[in-house]
Specification:
There is one protein chain. With 245 residues, the chain is an alpha/beta fold. It has a single domain, classed as Rossmann fold, CATH 3.40.50. The chain contains seven helices and nine strands; from the N terminus they run ββββαβαβαβααβαβα. The N and C termini lie far apart (36 Å).
Length: 245
């Protein structure tokens, strides 16, 4: 299905598979698709996108977040992965590097499984396998859903949108297919992540063939200003391995 589009406040509104989705494209160079964490809008990538200025950065608001309309019914992780493929189509990209953060890491895993030909390299940040994961602190999880207190506050996801995201993740697992992921994969997490404990990243790296694991200083939110530079450096080193001199 070919996405239709309109433009709103610097973003394009796409109609994909009956869903209205806001997409943003910036920069130039090799393409990197960023897939947001739970309840996080496009603005959550501000600091990392600035650090990755040598790349074409494609990002989008998942249904129920930011400028993307909340659907009447839940949207599963496989459908979100298909939506990400539609975003690549709308951006005119046959393939791209993919980076998924937290909830977006689940979508990125599913995308790598369902559309291996669209994924050059895969980066999984602060994420897990879904069902079967090592659980984090409930208090830390709730704190992670709040917009940042510093800088420009993000728009909150509406309550139903947040519920749909939680339902999608709680009913999904990548354990059955991790061994089939063929894209070169980097797994990154904070050593002190209390939302998605590092044991989850270790498990992903052990089960995905040839995956590389990097533990950074810090907690769950590696998107924040103070972590974005270090994360971008790690990501660029990994993605650059696929670039011919």
């Amino acid at each position: 299905m070919t996405p239709s589009r309109s433009t709103v406040a610097g973003s394009q509104l796409l109609a994909i598979d009956g869903l209205e989705v806001a997409m943003h494209v910036q920069g130039g160079g090799d393409a990197l698709l960023l897939i947001n964490g739970m309840a996080r809008p496009l603005q959550s990538w501000e600091h990392l996108a600035r650090e990755l200025s040598a790349r074409t950065i494609v990002s989008f608001d998942a249904p129920g977040v930011g400028d993307s309309r909340t659907p009447l019914l839940p949207v599963s992780i496989p459908r979100l992965a298909a939506l990400a493929t539609g975003v690549l189509d709308a951006a005119g990209l046959r393939e791209a590097d993919i980076l998924g953060f937290s909830h977006g890491g689940a979508v990125a895993q599913q995308l790598a499984r369902d559309e291996p030909g669209r994924v050059r390299r895969l980066v999984l940040v602060s994420t897990s396998c879904g069902l079967g994961a090592t659980l984090g602190s409930q208090e830390a999880v709730l704190r992670s859903l709040a917009p940042p207190a510093d800088g420009n506050p993000w728009p909150r996801a509406d309550a139903r949108g947040l519920l749909w995201h939680a339902l999608a993740f709680s009913s999904w697992s990548s354990i059955p297919f991790l061994g089939t992921i063929t894209a070169p994969t980097l797994v990154v997490c904070g050593r002190h992540d209390r939302v998605v404990p590092p044991a989850n990243s270790r498990m992903l790296a052990e089960r995905i063939p040839g995956a590389t694991l990097v533990l950074m200083q810090g907690g769950h939110d590696l998107q924040r200003r103070e972590q974005a530079g270090a994360l971008a450096h790690i990501v660029e080193d990994f993605l650059g391995q696929g670039t011919c001199a």
